[in-house]
Amino acid sequence: GMLPWPDFIAAFGLMLLPFFLIAKQPDLGTGILVLAAGLYVIFFAGLPWKLIVPAVVLAAAGATTLVLSEDRICQPDVTWPVLKPYQKHRICTLLDPSKDPLGKGFHIIQGMIAIGSGGITGKGFMQGTQTHLEFIPERTTDFIFAAFGEEFGLMGALALLAGFTALILRGLMIASDAPTLFTRLMAGAVTLSFFTFVFVN
């Protein structure tokens, strides 16, 4: 069933409040994750596809534009609306880590070296040199995938992704078979929140 429009608008309003409070801290990353979890619930509550598809297309177009115009918009004299300077720097470093190889880009580059050095089969559990020689910071949180990739290699990374895929598909099956609307929304949102964290990492 489809919820009436005022309910959708109220739900969006309720979601935006914590998003803005968290983003103001400033912690844009966590804010976006909270927003995503809320959007999943609204999606499962019956938000029509004709609204979702244009939003996804717009977001994809925006991301593509950002990547293509990186050289121009990442110049030091360009100020970005809304975002703080460190957030601009972080996005630009993500687009091209080699711009700041010893600063903000250092960790991304070291993460890629770690994943690459794991090769096909990996170096073995707890044998990762990049990770244990402290080249990679936050190896138990932000850079967990780099640490895993170094120790278990491409095969391990593929197995991990296959495991998460199975978990997420199973969660969505549970959601689709759920007996009540609340349980369906709960199972679907939790499962897709899992997906978001896996995708981001």
What is this structure's SSE topology?
Layout: H1 5-23, H2 28-44, H3 49-68, H4 70-73, H5 85-95, H6 105-117, H7 129-132, H8 144-176, H9 181-200
Helix pairs in contact: 1-2, 2-9, 6-8, 8-9
Model description:
- This protein is mainly α and 201 residues long.
- The protein has 9 helices and no strands.
- It has helices at 5-23, 28-44, 49-68, 70-73, 85-95, 105-117, 129-132, 144-176, 181-200.
- The longest helix has 33 residues, at 144-176.
- The model has no long low-confidence stretch (mean pLDDT 79).
- Order of H and E elements: HHHHHHHHH
Strand share of the residues? under 5%
Count every beta strand, where a strand is a DSSP E run of 2 or more residues. Answer: 0
Summarize model confidence as the mean pLDDT: 79
Number of helices: 9
Report the sheet with the most strands, covering strand number, pairing sense and barrel closure: none
C-alpha termini separation: 34 Å
Integer-rounded radius of gyration: 20 Å
The best one-word shape is globular
- The amount of helix comes to over 70%
Uncertain runs: none
Structural class: mainly alpha
